[in-house]
Specification:
- The chain is of the alpha/beta class.
- Strands 3-2-1-4-9-6-10 form a seven-stranded mixed sheet, with helices on both faces. A four-stranded mixed sheet has the order 5-11-7-8.
- The chain has one domain: Alpha-Beta Complex (Spore Coat Polysaccharide Biosynthesis Protein SpsA, Chain A).
């Protein structure tokens, strides 16, 4: 690898909507990465709480963009349009990277030039500020497990561009749709055993909201099947 390769820039992108209670932890987990250089882009997706204030408190250590509410896919796409990096990573505003996440994944990509994207394992935790009553509303953390989702990945810029942007027409299933298209595009992926993401469980990401999402997940999967059938003739 050349010196230029060794210094390849990683763009980390966070879309945030009313995420003031947790955004600071997400940002700090990015700045705690052992890998450099990196840039952090936060997109405030029309929040009406203190999300923007949290991001602004970091000054020029990050790039902050505010937009009208467009959903997770639109926020990620806005961040991508700002990104200057050779590699892309995405983080939800209520989750956290583990400190060696980017270093481990970049090492895997450097070891195999044909590899497009690296994922990893996820560790879940119940948000510590929840009251006993609120804890009853969230499911228990699942065992540490592999997870091939954009929230974990480090992907080459050109590989991301082969798949294209995130859907802006889906309320849920955005990541399922993107991963389906990545599979259809033939991206070569790796899921090492390393825990690279800590996923927060709280009252706004579980329960009824997940149940209501089932019909849209089915729509996403059907669309993927239809695309494959068309491509086969």
């Amino acid at each position: 690898m050349s010196e230029t390769d060794q210094a390849a820039l990683i763009s980390v992108m966070i879309g945030a909507y009313n995420a003031a209670p947790y955004l600071g932890e997400a940002i700090e987990s990015v700045f705690a990465q052992t890998q450099r250089p990196l840039e952090l882009i936060v997109v405030d997706d029309g929040s009406d709480d203190g999300t923007g204030d949290v991001a602004r408190s970091y000054g020029d250590r990050l790039t902050l963009v505010r937009q009208e509410r467009g959903g997770n896919g639109a926020a990620r796409n806005t961040a991508v349009a700002q990104a200057r990096g050779d590699f892309f990573a995405f983080l939800d505003a209520d989750d956290r990277f583990t400190p060696a996440k980017l270093a481990l994944q970049l090492a895997a990509l450097r070891a195999d030039p044909e590899l497009d994207v690296v994922f990893g394992h996820v560790r879940e935790f119940v948000s510590p500020e929840l009251t006993p009553e609120q804890r009853k509303l969230v499911r228990p953390p699942a065992p540490v497990s592999p997870w091939a989702a954009p929230n974990l990945m480090l992907i080459r810029r050109e590989s991301f561009e082969r798949v294209g942007p995130f859907s802006t027409s889906l309320r849920v299933g955005v990541t399922v749709d993107w991963f389906a298209r990545a599979t259809e595009a033939g991206l070569k992926s790796l899921v090492p055993p390393d825990v690279v993401l800590e996923r927060r469980l709280h009252t706004q990401n579980n329960g009824l909201r997940e149940q209501q999402a089932q019909s849209q997940y089915i729509h996403v999967l059907k669309a993927s099947i239809d695309r494959r059938r068309r491509s086969q003739g």
